[in-house]
Amino acid sequence: MKEKLLERFIPLVDFIATIVGPHCEVVLHDVTNVESSIIAIRNGHISGRKVGGPLTDLGLKFLKEKLYQTQDAMVNYPARTKDGKPLRSSTFFIKDDNGELVGMLCVNVDLSTALQARKFIDDFIMNIDTDKQAQKINLRSEFLEVTNPSLEDLMSSLIEETIKQFNVPPERLSQEEKIEIVQKLNDKGFFLLKGAVTELAKYLKTSESTIYRYLNNYKKRDEK
Questions:
Q1: How far separated are the first and last CA of the chain, in Å rounded?
Q2: Would you state the pLDDT for residue 33?
């Protein structure tokens, strides 16, 4: 009876390991034989175990304390292999019709590669001092570069970001506000873009000649 029950879980060993991948060790234990409890295992290279291996120390603790009587599983607890690999482990308790424990299905995810990747990312991010880099190119510390996929997106982004500072729809902007928008966009290098005047005229609901006039007046003022 016990053997047949555990046999049903053997396909799950391959199923889970195939889904999660080579960093996931899946082990099926027969807890009625703790000295050689492993009856199926996938990705045993993670812990170095194989069929015929014993139950773990924590498995023995689960068995001794009869934890299976109050819950069906233990999920996402920390563990380590003998050689120090960090694991995220989960154990499902396999019980017979009488509620007695006959096996454990254990899933152990090797976190070592993920932790190395996280360290790289943390180190990389910490190495970026945005305030210092912003000061080098005379920008506000809150400035962030936005990588727009096209010229149209770039122009729209610059215009919308500038207009947004006035909290007024484009059609309700005063002449003074429109002049200030032209000035701000000029300071951002907006008019270095081909078609910038035409695009801005559409947003501000005005003529291109008006935009040129605002722009020329601003440049003349700076030249004085």
A1: 98
A2: 87
* Distance from C-alpha of 126 to C-alpha of 153, rounded to nearest angstrom: 30
pLDDT tens, position by position, 100-111: 999 999 999 999
Alpha-carbon span 108 to 88, nearest angstrom = 6
Q: 204: part of which helix (H) or strand (E)?
A: helix 196-204
DSSP β-ladder status, 38-42 and 101-110:
unpaired
**Which H or E run includes 184?**
helix 175-187
Looking at per-residue pLDDT, the higher value among 120 and 213 belongs to 213
How much is the pLDDT for 171? 83
What pTM was estimated for this model as a whole?
Answer: 0.58
Q: How many other C-beta atoms can be found within 10 angstroms of the C-beta atom of residue 178?
A: 21
Q: What whole-number distance in Å separates Cα of residue 75 and Cα of residue 77?
A: 6
Q: CA–CA separation, 67 vs 73, rounded Å?
A: 9
Counting Cα atoms < 13 Å in the Cβ hemisphere of 191 gives 17
